[in-house]
């Protein structure tokens, strides 16, 4: 949408020749004047003539504003680029100088800039308004990154560049440093460092790297200032641990929020506060690869609001299992409530059991279901340790990870027999409340007679791909990277659409990138355990890659045994050809099957990926990101195939 080109004299007239009485703001790059044009209030920004800001920057900002049209981006009304000559004094003499005037005209924002509303300890606005500002800023930035033919990186996002209208709707402004790129995946280096230091990511300050994660870092810094104030931002970075900072912010907002007669609305506000501060801390991670993309942030907020809408639709008592109770820990669920929804953990409600506990179906009053896992702890954890781990699991949010709704750590007195009499004893319960998966676990759909198990090839491929995406999230995108260590079909659940979701983090280890852990104890299913873990206790993300390879083979071949028939040693090529031929025969039996050759090629590719994942040498296994790229045809398997070593046959 092209803007109007104004003459300089027109803007001089409506600003009373840029009178100080009409000046409403001033910054490092220009002064802003309030004016009225055709009955509409507008803001006229007169740019300073600064070294480093030239006609190219002006044209860039003008072009970028003309390309965008969004409720959370300031609307450009017009511009002026005027060159004239004027007598000026220079060195004690009058000379004729060439004066360049650059001006931009925008819709007028009655609420001023966001920085005027942020104090030392918190934002001066109420929480509902703060949350709307956070949402709107995220949506505006997402529009710049993902709704353009060529994405726009803002590169100077900060509270003074977020303006508020009369309804306190946020609008991003000042695109003078912005740049258009071919793709959000693109990054480049620059030697020119400009902007505001506390909103610049470390890779830009130290190496001049510019990527889509630049704006995400700036967004995180803005959100932290909104929820914690200016002093809170520095306290969060320098004085407190991540957990301490989150709890400090939450407690401060609890003190400001007025408890409602219906406790849910108060608790939902606290849930939003917690989500925003956790999200902001992920955005300001020093490692740009660990920061979320802006579309992920917007999606997370949309999911939160959808969940809140669902919570508000259920009866008050029932919603206690879905939203945080206002106790010392916000995700703690009462044991009695979990007993009520599982009919006191009766056998009729049992969904399954494993080495770490028994899972029961919980039925809420409106008929919705949850899964309640009663953990068996060989070594009981302290309440603090259990709740810290629970808090971490609550941050895991991905379509291919089973969502934790809450947890319970509670000690009760029970009557037990002791030396021919009954005595009271303390019994500590550890429970998890999880989303319910109606189609059960993947192992229910794997059998020797794989052709009769009911899963067509496209569903199986979706399962393989989904498991890989979930594992990539755990390894590379979670707040703290996680190695699962017990990846197997019983720990992959299927929702109503057969979307796979990884569960059961009972063995999981937190790790830092490139870290190798040694352990003297291990547990797990032998057929899925990598040899270096099984024999030497070595833990790296490659242990999960081995397990993934075994699962891929099982999903394709239907074999329940680890993972190949005994004659695999003869030749990987023979094995692949034999399994592809089985599928070819199966698919040819289906009338009107139109994608036979394409699917057979896909099956062959998946088998090959499975084989290279179970290479006995961990360094010759691909990362999960490379596996996804292979599935999507973006990564060659040639190197891995050349280095493939046929694994020794093991039996369960």
Tell me the layout of helices and strands:
Elements lengths: L3 E2 L2 H7 L8 E4 L3 E8 L2 E8 L7 H13 L8 E15 L2 E15 L4 E2 L13 H20 L5 E2 L8 E3 L5 E3 L6 E2 L7 E2 L12 H6 L1 E2 L1 H27 L3 H15 L6 H21 L10 H19 L22 H7 L8 E5 L2 E7 L5 E7 L7 H12 L9 E15 L2 E15 L21 H21 L4 E2 L8 E3 L5 E3 L6 E2 L6 E2 L12 H6 L1 E2 L2 H16 L14 H17 L7 H18 L10 H8 L6 H5 L10
Parallel strand pairs: 1-5
Antiparallel strand pairs: 2-3, 3-4, 4-6, 5-6, 7-9, 8-11, 9-10, 12-13, 14-15, 15-16, 16-18, 17-18, 19-22, 20-21, 23-24
Helix pairs in contact: 3-5, 3-7, 3-8, 5-6, 5-7, 6-7, 7-8, 11-13, 11-16, 13-15, 14-15
General description of the model:
With about 650 residues, the protein is an alpha+beta fold. The chain has 4 domains: about 5-105, Phosphorylase Kinase, domain 1, CATH 3.30.200.20; about 110-310, Orthogonal Bundle (Transferase(Phosphotransferase), domain 1); about 330-435, Phosphorylase Kinase, domain 1, CATH 3.30.200.20; about 440-640, Transferase(Phosphotransferase) domain 1 (Transferase(Phosphotransferase), domain 1), CATH 1.10.510.10. It is built from 17 helices and 24 strands. The strands form 8 sheets. The chain has a 6-stranded mixed beta sheet. A 5-stranded antiparallel beta sheet has the order 14-15-16-18-17, with helices on both faces. The longest helix has 27 residues, at about 210-240. The termini are far apart. It comes from Triticum turgidum subsp. durum (Durum wheat). It is a single-pass membrane protein.
